[in-house]
Amino acid sequence: MSYQVLARKWRPRRFKDMVGQEPILRMLSNALEQKRLHHAYLLTGTRGVGKTTLGRILAKCLNCETGPTPDPCGQCHACQAIDVGQFLDLFEVDAASRTKVEDTRELLDNVLYPPTQGRYKVYLIDEVHMLSNHSFNALLKTLEEPPEHVKFILATTDPKRLPITILSRCLQFHLKRITPEQIAKHLQHICQAETITHDLPALDKLAKAADGSMRDALSLLDQAIAYGHSAVNQHDVCGMLGSMAQDELLPLLEALAAQDGKQLLEKVAHLAELAPDFHQALEELISLFHQIAIAQVVPQAVKQEEAIMSLAKCFAPEDVQLYYQIALLGRRDLAITPSPQQGFEMTMLRMLAFKPTNPSVRGTEQRSNLPPPPPAPTTPAPQAAASPSIPDWRSLLPKLGLTGMAHALASNCILEQIAGNKVILSLSNTHQPMLNQKLKDRLAEALSRQLQQPIQLEINVTSSDLMTPVKQHQQEQEQRLAQATRTMMEDPQVKKLIDMYDGTLEISFVS
Fold it and tell me: Residues 28-65: pLDDT tens digits?
């Protein structure tokens, strides 16, 4: 018996055999159970996600002798005939090779006749977007008023090219790309069933290379089995794909963590001897930085290798974020560099050159360069004479324990005088709307507690421009922000980043 490729041998024959399309399978299963059958289904999605396979399974569900059923028996004549492609009432059409209107009319000539073997005539049209406009017009009338015994299943990778008149007459299902994790798990199941020696990192590589397509993944697995003499291991898979294992990039990251430029270039030169695809090398590097970032933030979220956990302790989180961004830009610009190796080297050297200085040290330096807060307003002479032990109004406010509108009112006042048990405040007329008896009473109670005596509070409204605690704080923030901006703009590393990425600098303080 001739060898059958894995993509055909392991092609799903029932809904439960399909991987990664659970929502769609649930909708179709429920519709079949409730006998709510539409006359036209449109299956969309990228290559290799199961559009044609799902169409065949649906045809089997519709024509199974125990059905219509979401779980065809697989033993009746209709099920077996569909599996081997010999069911007379299933018409599979490749629209890419039959685009002419004459082909479509010939196909639809027999629509009115009842099925020969099964319950329904099923027309499975693959790559339906390739049909000509005249062919769509010929199909449109039949789709609009189909006979009871006819079902249409249309499949396409490009639904945007279908006329809206066709789309509106179909029940549309979008098959999503299959995740690498789901593909790798399925490949592992196949290897175990086929008694193929394998290791999980190799299957992860194949799953990633498949780019969301299960058919591509099975084809790559076939190649890997042949390449490795009936064994699938990471070294052989990397050689077959022309990629590299992440282990080969770990020495680069170790040199980067050590800030050793000489060692870093030596590791790049050693890497170049393996004749790698530097675009893929940057992709693997980006993936490594992603894993390191996750290990730093949520170590228990995913199962990380020991090497990743070790590197996570060598890099500061802000360094990892910067290196990730630099690697992304390096991959984007790799095509316009004089040579891929040179572009890769410059990306690594850029990471080395732009490593942030110790943020805590830099923050201390910046704070030391900031101007001191402006002096508080001089306490009026009558106030000092009347109560020499009372601090200025701004210093007193935090001790009053005020919140909400009461605190806002007090912050927009200035202290004019304290004489005995009488406290006189001034409030600008622009803030007069917030003054009411309830807030005044709360402020008086707070002053009484702080000064440990009953206080008679008087608040005078004035049109003068007052230097209130709020205004003092705003002026200090503006001065600090201006000084911080000047300090950062004078930093050589910041200047390099701004020039290289045509960036701008924005600084803000969080109070």
Answer: 999 999 989 999 999 999 988 999 999 999 999 999 98
Domain of residue 386, residue span:
381-466
Residue 137 CA to residue 81 CA, distance in Å, equals 32
DSSP state of 49: S
The CATH number of residue 337's host domain is 1.20.272.10
Q: Is residue 374 part of a domain?
A: no
Same domain, 260 and 337: yes
360-374 tens-digit pLDDT: 433 334 444 444 544
- pTM for the full predicted model: 0.58
In a domain, 358, yes or no: no
| Inter-residue contact 279 to 340 (CB < 8 Å) | yes
Distance of CA 506 to the CA centre of its chain: 25
| 256: in domain | yes
Shared domain check, 197 and 216: yes
For residue 80, what is the domain's CATH number? 3.40.50.300
Q: Name residue 37's beta-bridge partners.
A: none
* Domain final position from 241, 258, 280: 241
pLDDT tens digits along 463-500: 888 888 888 888 888 888 888 888 878 877 777 777 77
Q: Which two tokens stand for residue 376?
A: 């508080």
CA distances from 169 to 37, 101, 472 (A): 14, 20, 69
Of 284, 252, 279, 289, the residue nearest 336 (C-alpha): 279
Q: 1: exposed, middle or buried (C-beta count within 10 Å: 0-12, 13-18, 19+)?
A: exposed
316 lies in a domain?
yes
Residues 90 and 189 in one domain: no
Query: What does the pLDDT read at residue 376?
Result: 47
- pLDDT per residue as tens digits for the range 87-102: 888 988 888 777 777 7
DSSP state letters, 82-148: HHTT--TTEEEEETTT--SHHHHHHHHTTTTSPPSSSSSEEEEEETGGGS-HHHHHHHHHHHHS--T
**47: Cβ contacts below 8 Å, ≥ 6 apart:** 157, 213, 215, 216
| C-beta atoms surrounding 418 within 10 Å | 22
| Domain co-membership, 392 together with 417 | yes
Q: How many domains does the chain have?
A: 4
Instruction: Identify the pLDDT of residue 306.
Output: 76
Q: What is the mean pLDDT of residues 253-272?
A: 88
Instruction: Of 98, 154, 145, give the one whose Cα is nearest residue 126.
Output: 154
Residues 17 and 79 in one domain: yes
DSSP states of 312-323: HHHS-HHHHHHH
